[in-house]
Amino acid sequence: MRYHWFFLCMVMGLLAGCGEAPGIRQYEVTRPEFVERGNVDVPQAPQVELEPATTWGAIWPRGNQAWFFKATASPEAVAGLATKWKEFVASVKFSDGSNPEWTLPEGWSQLPGNQFRFATLVMKDAAGAPIELTVSSLPRSPEQWDSQLDANLSRWKGQLGIGPMESSSVSQTTEKQGDDEVVFVLMQGSRAKGQGMMGGMSAPGTASTANMPAAESGQTKPPAVNEMQKMVEGEIKLTPPAEWKPGKLNAFRKAAYEVTRGDERVEITVIDLAGESGGLLENINRWRDQVGMPAIELAALTSELKNVKTANGPAQLIEIEGSKGQSILGAVLPRGDRTWFVKLQGSTPLAQQEKARFLEFLETSALP
């Protein structure tokens, strides 16, 4: 297949180019603290290490749906997986006219999907480290497909820190797969060091638990407790403030609370997803979109993040003030083979009033 040779040639070319630039870059960013002292310990000028990363994938248009097969790994891992990637793509079929079916190459496994993706496939590099291949779909307008394709490619580029006008690090070709015209993509950029390892995502600015300073005695007051809302399920232990009332649960939410004050309302949710669930940047950009803000790139994201303490160690905290009177205060906490997302979203004035309680809630939350 022509694409197989194209893929191998491009990977070899990207690998050859990697030696010309430093493998790891560092940024130092200092911003005013947006969280109250006494609730959290905020490291000054956090250092972010970046490493080379390659995203490869296939964008598969099918009628009014577009399917996305995507993975990100080191350039060396991508080169080693080229043959199995070709084998997998050749096995993909749409026999029922809607959802794809495939045959997993030897050594691959499959995890259930969630609200963001149809399935997660797990590959392994030469050292045995797991790599996620995500499968997802979005509605497609055949008349506007070119602009939709460009928008998704731009999003992928942004996740690797590639500028919107930069083309030298991106290769794209279209191949016939049955009756479909499939777009194959290979991109070379960078990501936060360690971000690609399932269950071991090291987000920008994350410090190890051992390096986090211990809380000072009497530094914070215990939050007020509503015993009817105290949640202990397995190893999940949440102690919400008394002012938070039970919210709406669904299949994905482990806990939900709400606060209303007049016409203003905020909702607090706790969910967990498998692996890194698309990565820190993709999830933050999804939150930004929810409050009417444009996506940002990795370099800009590092200046927006702060470390906060939880009962399980550090989490990444971000505050997003939207363009329509809505704000999000959210925390991302990788734990084992899962990533936890704790989010407060709603009216900006009420979100600001509840911020201190939200930070106390984070500090006392224990997640498995």
UniProtKB/TrEMBL annotation:
Residue numbers spanned by region Disordered: 194-222
* UniProt protein name: Lipoprotein
Per the UniProt record, the source organism is Planctopirus limnophila (strain ATCC 43296 / DSM 3776 / IFAM 1008 / Mu 290) (Planctomyces limnophilus)
